[in-house]
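Re: the pair you flagged

First of the two:
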Amino acid sequence: MKINGHEIALNEAFLDDALQNKTSKIELVSKDFEGYKALPEGDKKALEYLTKAARILNDVTLEQDHHLNHAQKNALSEAAKTSEYAKKTLAFFNSLNGVEGSNGIDKEHIEIFKGIKGYAGRNFYPHDMSVEEFHKILLEMFAQNKIETLKKILSARTMVRRKDKELEAIDYVAYFSKEFSAAADELDKAAKVVTNKDFAEYLVLQAKALRVADEPLDAKADAKWATLQDTDLEFTLGRENYDDEMTTTIFENETIKKLLEKHHIEATSKDMLGVRVGIINKKGTELILEFKDHMSELVGLMPFADKYEQNVCGGEGLKQTMVDVDLVALTGDYAQCRGGITTAQNLPNNDKLSIKQGNGRRNAYHRQVRMSKDTEKTAKILEKLVAKELHPFYDQGDLSDHLFVIGHENGHSFGPNSAYQNALGKYKHIIEEHKADVISIAFMPEYVKAGVIDAKALKEIYTSWVVGRLFMRAEAKFDHPHRVADLMQFNYLLEHGVTSFDEEGKLHINFEIFDRVMKQFLAETIEVQLSKSPKVAADFIEKNGKWGKDSARIAKFLQELGLKPYKDIRTYI
């Protein structure tokens, strides 16, 4: 079957298996949810406007991701009215939120249509432009001293298109003026009916930033958003740059790298937009804030802390809000379920103007994403792969993993800033996600000392982390930074005797040395960021990130149990 002249590459048997057996449902909250029913009528109405804005901005992400996303989705939607095959294909498209993407297991991306592939620069850059041509054009523009244009091209907030033999950068606000304006209208409507004045002020600022191409307006909205600790609702316009693999290539070109330094250009990968709408869960937030209270103390424990400026604390102390969110909508980047789905975030990132101005951050945690475990499958994993003395320390619920994620998101607030991170080029995301993981685990004993968790909970966190995250279901691929980081940590623990496997292939953990080894690993990781060297980062990843026999054995068993790499996000409001 052809859609817009492109034949569907996935047969019905594949689609049936993927949708029925390999897709897990993420049920977001409905109007029957107690947290929703407790809201004032104005907040309920505001949620409808915010959800509509989220859907509008999903169209922006589709355009950023691939130049054929809209055409193929629209044609599929029409064909699905009369064809079951097209209907199934559309459902699969919606899981990826695009025409192609990784499923986190297979080495190659899953492509829905024959002849439609993804690109290193997604649709941020001309899809027919190679890395070599990109570098050549940049060098020619440097030679012509077009520095201001180059700054815009290498900005996180522009779409880049051809202009004669050169390139031009179009600010998101101009490029997506129709969608941004429509979304801003919905935010303004929500601001008029929502009951919390601070939240209303934020929505007005965010709406203005969507209408005017001015980075300081983004910073004002970000700064206000980061102060919202006591609101009932959540709306996030997330901007993260994992998907752009074109911009990062320039850091491996020594000539371009020197020119960037000479002209003081901070090249940043393009932001993919994601939107979160939700209701703040007050009880869940209380737990998260217990960890926040100790962040200022942990700053002094960071390795080489005297060699860089910590961004977690300014002159006024810690500036960070944290909330647990019952999700109403996830769209855009958050709905690109390509091998996983985000469980939490710490934003704005270091490259954003608001952070550079010394404003705060905000952590948001996704309750509906994390609150699901297959207990039957877990029991089989423990029986086959884990020594019996560790079984009592594996948390069958979500608390231990949630505490790890809290530590991870807090970890992003520690360490060297964006100048160090960006200098690592295409390796920056792997190293940064790995750093946050290691900070989380390395600092957990400090929470025992502070009385936030007890010694048994620490062992539960260690065990649940190793089994739940470092037992990988497939070989890590470069475009999944979190999974590469998991593999590095799995190998490091084995190499340094924290973990071991007996003759039956079952895991054992030496809890006595866990703390020391993880602090050592953290120091090595910070040294990589301080190096500002892509080669140092590459060597570090190569040294620690090899796919070994134990990982392969574990992955084989997990795959035999059955995996669900695809997601179906159910939205009801």
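Second of the two:
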Amino acid sequence: MSNPTKNYQRNVSEHLPTDDQIPSTILVVDDSRVVRTYLQSHLQKEGYEVIVAKDGKEAVSLLSDNIGIVLLDLWMPEMDGMACLRYIRENFADIPTIMITVSHEISNAVEAMKYGAFDYVTKPFNPNELLALVQQALKTRIQAQRLRKVEAELAKAREHEISIASRIQQTLLLGGAPKNLKGVRIGDLTIASKKIDGDFYDFYMVGDTCFDVIVGDVMGKGIPAALLGAAAKQHFMAALYRLTRIPEGSSMPAPEEIVQSVHREMIGQMKDLETFFTLCYARFDLTKNLISYVDCGHMRTIHYHFETNSCTLLQGVNMPLGFPGQDHFKQILIPFSNGDLFFFYSDGLTEAKNPKHEFYGEQRLVDLVRRHSFLEPQELCKTAWKEITAFSRSDTFSDDFTCVAVKIEVPEPTERYDQEWKLEVPGDLGELGRIRAFIQDMCKSMGTNVVDDERIKMIQIVATELMTNIIKHAYQGRKGETVLIEAKTSRDEIILNFYDRGIEFDFSSAPKPVFDGSKDDGFGLHIIAHTADYVRYSRDETGRNCACVTFFLQRRGQG
């Protein structure tokens, strides 16, 4: 007569490779010599190899990977069944354990199952019931091992596919910086959270001294986000090609026009996919020392000012691409100087967390850029990666890590400004008339065809608000203080710098204006920001504050 257990083992094993064989040795653990002897004899008759232990302590010394299953008594001296079970689960998790207990201890046996026991039998037990449980436990172990092997093969295949996709991503999503471009140095770095991601960036030459940088971040991760990012890049390239096929002598389409064109073409696709992407598009004009900047809900670009060793954050007013109702995109114009640095990045940098679940944050990144602004752009990107991974104590982030650094090396031409003006006045509101007259004389000297009366009034309003803010907030009404005003003019622009040595102004903490009629003041900053073309507040190492406002007299930054 054939042995049913041996037949079962042969049936489940014959379809597995030899290295998938499960050990058939059974470890019986019970403080009763009678029970140990009975189980050993019965199981050996069924073809199993059996070893025995009188308590949990001895069982632990006998455990090895050669054990196929453990029959474990619940109550024993030295080390009871629960303690032994915990040891097995922690050190030999693949070995199934069947608990042996008396009927009134069933609740304890059920509790043991919650801690990983395969099943339980009660004393006195039915030999056939016990044999069936042993067979089932071994079968389950074989199936689990086979499943792990299949999952490992699938994981290996996915890893291979993702590796290929990652290499494709380097071509489709990550553009190469312009080579040998005089007046600028560029660095870039991207590290995907899942080896392939939705971050993308590219560079486009639109002239000998003019190039565009685009940095985007698709909502989501993995291959779907990467595919949408690749589609977005293709649309930008197509829009540039289409819009730049213009008649000789015509101006280059502005970044805001290019972004508008791409949004119009992709809005239907993104609506169907229920997704969107943030974006910043920057055109660097190295002749005019000007950047035309379109921000669509992206992280605020860091502008490091070499002259003052300070940083400002660039932020636009546009919604991300893919949001319905966005009919027009608006760009802002920002002047730059030799030594300035622009740092574009994705939220993978600022949203990296340390073990305390604290975000790295925008302010830490601003400080990092300022401290390491002397580095080559490529080294700056690598340093950002090193410092952020050190902060998070991990080189694996929940989001993608992408940054682009652009450092300016265009010396200021001596002939850029036609005239320079200077006026120093006491910090007193009674000097406002004198400042307005200073603005009037300066603008009139440039010619009526350069600055009209309406623009002169706008500049006077901004100067009045700046002077008022310095007197009220920086000097807090103290007498005996002075304000220095320096101006530079050309046919293209007017730059006004207001210097004071009062309390430092923190623009980010300034209260927002209230337009419901409940307040009569607080509108000065709003007027300044919406009247001047560019505004920057800084403080140098000597403690001198500077409010810099720029008025562009011609529409610039479009080629």
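Confidence is low (pLDDT under 50) at residues 1-19, 555-559.

-B.
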